[in-house]
Design goal:
The complex is a heterodimer of chains A (175) and B (146). Chain A has three helices and three strands. Chain A is α+β, with helices and mostly antiparallel strands and 175 residues long. In chain A, strands 2-3 form a two-stranded antiparallel sheet. In chain A, β2 and β3 form a beta hairpin. Chain B has 146 residues and is α+β, with helices and mostly antiparallel strands. Chain B has one domain. In chain B, the strands form two sheets. A four-stranded antiparallel beta sheet of chain B has the order 2-1-8-7. In chain B, strands 3-4-5-6 form a four-stranded antiparallel beta sheet, with no helix packed on it. The longest helix of chain B is centred in the first third of the chain and has 22 residues. Chain B starts with a helix and ends with a strand. Classes of the chains: A alpha+beta (175), B alpha+beta (146). The interface between A and B is large, with 52 and 60 residues.
Chain lengths: 175, 146
């Protein structure tokens, strides 16, 4: 035997048989109020369905959000890769820059080389004569040796003149 | 573009090498026996540039190279040896200045150090050193930047 609440729920859902429906409606003290309540319940049901549907949609949105995030991540990865590609591309562009840099370096190098050569030339053409800074002989081997130095500007030679070094036999002139 | 780059690099290399070669100086070091003889031999080609001062300063009419060395100075820090049978001239370059190469020279008779000197060898001014008397002649040491 169904309780009133069970019958009420079945009535609201339209699941009572004709006999049960007639019996239930006859048992209602105020049928109009009950009908109004049934209408409200249907409205509520429709609202709930709508809300449940919306909830399902929220899930979809959640998943689509997840998907979008994943896509965004993958896109970021791809863009990073393509960024690398861009670097490669820019590397190719940098070769041009390298070429320009190389050319500029060459120009700088040439300028410096010319400077160096110009610096070297005065030294080569310089008026400097060879200078003897110091000289010494072994006092044991040549105790009476003397040393003098002079330059002849006419011939542009510098001479270290020794006297009294140990004399050697002619054999020492051998090649 | 890569070809241009390679060409530029090659050009730079060649230019650098050329400059390097241009920067190298050749120093000739010689052990010379000066003598007075009746029939003097012609002066060795290495000494032709200083024939007049050699003859005028030392008073000999023949000059023979008994040992020599030709060294290209790249850094000014090189050292080398010019040797004859009994003599050895060790030259130790100790840098380059505007006035020339700073050299330490040591003359050895076999293993015996006879003479040591430090000099700044100018590029246009030869260095002549009067060494010991050898027989009737004289040992001379000559250094020239060629």
């Amino acid at each position: 035997m169904k309780t009133f609440e069970e019958k009420w729920t079945a009535w609201l859902d339209g699941q009572l048989s004709d006999r049960e429906l007639a019996q239930f409606e006859a048992s209602l003290p105020d049928k109009a109020a009950a009908e109004a309540e049934k209408t409200e319940a249907k409205k509520l049901g429709a609202f709930l369905k709508r809300e449940l549907g919306a909830r399902a949609l929220t899930n979809e949105e959640f998943f689509s959000h997840q998907l979008r995030e994943r896509i965004a991540r993958e896109s970021a990865g791809e863009s990073r890769k393509s960024g690398g590609r861009r670097i490669e591309v820019s590397t190719w562009w940098t070769i041009r820059r390298l070429l320009w840099t190389g050319t500029a370096s060459l120009v700088v190098f040439l300028v410096l080389a010319i400077f160096v050569m110009r610096d070297k030339n005065p030294a080569e053409q310089s008026q400097y004569l060879t200078q003897i800074l110091n000289a010494r002989v072994d006092p044991v081997v040549s105790p009476n040796a003397t040393i003098s130095m002079f330059e002849t500007k006419e011939d542009r030679v510098t001479v270290l003149w020794t006297e009294g070094l140990q004399s050697l036999p002619a054999d020492y002139a051998a090649k | 573009m890569a070809r241009s780059l390679l060409l530029s690099a090659a050009f730079a290399l060649v230019l650098g090498t050329a400059t390097e070669l241009r920067g190298a100086e050749m120093v000739w070091s010689g052990l010379v026996i000066a003598e007075n003889v009746a029939q003097p031999h012609p002066i060795p080609p290495e000494l032709t540039g200083i024939e007049r001062p050699l003859k005028r300063l030392f008073g000999y009419n023949q000059f023979q190279v008994i040992g020599q060395s030709r060294k290209a100075l790249q850094t000014g820090q090189e050292d080398w040896l010019a040797t004859s049978k009994f003599f050895g001239l060790h030259v130790d370059a100790r840098g380059e200045s505007q006035a020339g190469y700073v050299l330490n020279l040591k003359l050895y008779k076999e293993k015996e150090l006879l003479l040591e000197t430090d000099a700044k060898l100018s590029k246009r001014s030869p260095l002549l050193i009067k060494g010991p008397q050898v027989g009737g002649g004289q040992l001379l040491l000559v250094l020239v930047v060629q």
